[in-house]
Amino acid sequence: MNTEGLAADYFDGHSAQPHLVQLRLAAGQLHIEGDDVSRVVPVKQVQWPERQRHGARVAHLRDGASLQAHDAQAWDAWRRAGGMREPLAVRLQQSWRATAGAAALLLLLAFAGYRWGLPAAARAVLSAVPASADRSVGDAALASIDGRWLMPSALDAARRQRIAADFARTVARAYPAGAAPAYELQFRKSRIGPNAFALPGGVIVLTDEMVRLLDGRDEVLLGVLAHELGHVRRRHAMRLFVQAALLGTVTSVAFGDFSGLLAGAPALLGHLDYSRDFEREADDESMAVLRANGLSPALMVELFEALERHRRTRDEASGLAGRIGIALSSHPAGEERMRRFREAANR
To answer: Which of 85, 220, 306, 321 could pair with 316 as two cysteines, CB 3.0-4.6 Å apart?
Structure first.
């Protein structure tokens, strides 16, 4: 198809001197004509510029020569009149609908990656990490919160020994010989209120405040510790650490240096929320351990009721209470968890 000529500057690739030329498209050929320039170049051998809202239009030839339009809009109209169809990518870039759709798709992919891809990647990485590494991470995490949120237990030694012995017998009855997860029960006075949480490597921390909250209800306390043992058995805390490291790596690539976040990842274990799936798995472990000891899973309903009474009567201005381990009521909601324990008792 023939088109009207278009004025442009021609650069031969050897000097910075422009040559005024007229461009014409005909039968798949680009004709370049000027006072001292006369060329015919196949259209397919021209590197055509993408159409943009702003900016010059510069086309490059294979031998290093180039063409620069005087008028970008006139260039675009000339190409359209010559029957040259823009690449799909360019057409999409100029469409607000396509741009909005691409942005929505990107957000969807980001959400899917965070919701499902990140946990799957963490499981794959964790499968290659020896269990011995968990303890090092757990010790670092405990050291980061000891003295800040936790202090030495004020419970008398006899009370601590009785709880530890009762739980050891409970665990022994719930698992075949040699199959119980390795754990270490530690007691702390805390600034985070009634709580219990598990760290990588098997350390289970039980706060004095949780013991006092459930004073006289040792069976419920055993259910709390069994829940934390479920986190230990499934390496939930270590999976959170790996996910935080992976997320830090991805964000550092996308947005910059997040090395400071990664360096503090062990401390983050102190307040990273468990997912709903993690909490359900740990609750299932607690149910199984209680049943193996002839106790009803419905006992754990007392825990959530006691925690709710505690929240109503105490001003938790620090915002830390209830964000670690079993005291977390929002993953999943306390009502949902109580319903699951009641249903397990009825089965």
So the answer is: 321
